[in-house]
Amino acid sequence: MKKIMVTGATGQLGSQVLNLLVEKTGGNGISAIARDVTKLTEFSALGVNVVYGDYNDRNSLVKAFSGIDLLYFVSGSDVSSRLQQHENVVAAAREAGVKHVVYTSFQRRNETENSPVFLIAQAHLLTEKLLKESGLTYTILKHALYSDVVPMFIGSDVLEKGIIYQPAGDGKVAFTSRSDMAKAGVAVLTGEGHENKTYEIAGEKSYAYSDVAEILSKIGGKPVVYVSPTAEEFSKTLSEAGVLAEIIGMVGAFSEGIKQGEFDFPGTELEKLIGEKPEDLAGFLSKVYSK
Ligand code: NAP
Fold it and tell me: pLDDT digit string (tens) for 90-135?
């Protein structure tokens, strides 16, 4: 039986992958790394082999990955240091003799420095290149923007306010839930024939914020409108409201990316991988906003 290791297992995506793997295997042959192993005590109790590993500490990774056949590599969450972190993970996987790395990448159109989301994209571009050049067997899962980020961008109080205010124009996104990303990961880790393949992990429909407004109007039973200011107006309005410049920059960059069609890659590869219809955005938002 193949030995599988999950990284990012203390996080929202990795923990779902680990849960699904434990359901399938009873924990047998499953390992996970964590910077703080006490965060995974519940999984240890279920038979998962939990070991210390930090993307910043290559030696810890070599040790942790020893004897592992399949590595589920969750992209790091610290954008400022993950170029080096991802180099460490790929190098350690090679050194430890891992056979196959499944990497959680990112959908994008523009791969140049002119991309509005280049800050996010560059680690994914580098990691895909490193994996392809490494001689390791790989599978690249190009994740859509999570449906789960929509409430972060538009706010938990959007139904009360009745307005989505984002400088994203008519741009569309194939928003897909994080839980379907996890199912796709598990399908690849436990399935056959995914060697050296790249998959677009996205639902079959793209949505503009005007569509999101329509969905929310139905959920809330009263109108939600979508207003798309210019990037400058957006920045000025939010900064006058006291929002941190860093947040304005991040949301503004994603909005500009959406406007330019960076994440508009609907498709059926996800459905084929998981063997069921992915959760659509209306279903996801209804769970979030009907509470
Ligand atoms: P998350 O909940 O923030 O989880 C991130 C995971 O990475 C945590 O388990 C964290 O461990 C681990 N990690 C961070 N730095 C590490 C390090 N130096 N060494 C080892 N592990 C480290 O994020 P998520 O929602 O599960 O998403 C997974 C990844 O997808 C994110 O990291 C990000 O790259 C990307 N993402 C994509 C989208 C999208 O829309 N496509 C949205 C959000 C994030 P600790 O518990 O030790 O911090």
Answer: 999 999 999 999 999 999 999 999 999 999 999 999 999 999 999 9
Residue type, 206: S
- Bridge-based pairing of strands 100-106 and 137-143 is parallel
Ligand 1: residue whose CA is nearest its atom 15: 76
Q: Looking at the CA of residue 10, tell me the nearest atom of ligand 1.
A: 9
Ligand 1 atom closest to Cα of residue 106: 41
> Which residues neighbour 230 within 8 Å (Cβ) at sequence distance 6 or greater?
167
The model's pLDDT over 175-205, given as tens digits with 9 standing for 90+, comes to: 999 999 999 999 999 999 999 999 999 999 9
CA gap 255, 232 in Å, rounded: 12
Cβ of 35 below 6 Å from ligand 1: yes
Write out the E strands in the chain: 4-6, 30-34, 49-52, 70-73, 100-106, 137-143, 163-165, 197-201, 225-227
d(Cα 209, Cα 285) in Å, to the nearest integer?
Answer: 13
Is the CB–ligand 1 distance for residue 57 below 6 Å? no
Q: Look up residue 251 and give its two tokens.
A: 């949301």
Q: How many Å is the Cα radius of gyration of the chain? A: 20
Q: Decide whether any atom of ligand 1 lies within 6 Å of the 111 Cβ.
A: no
Helix (H) or strand (E) holding 116: none
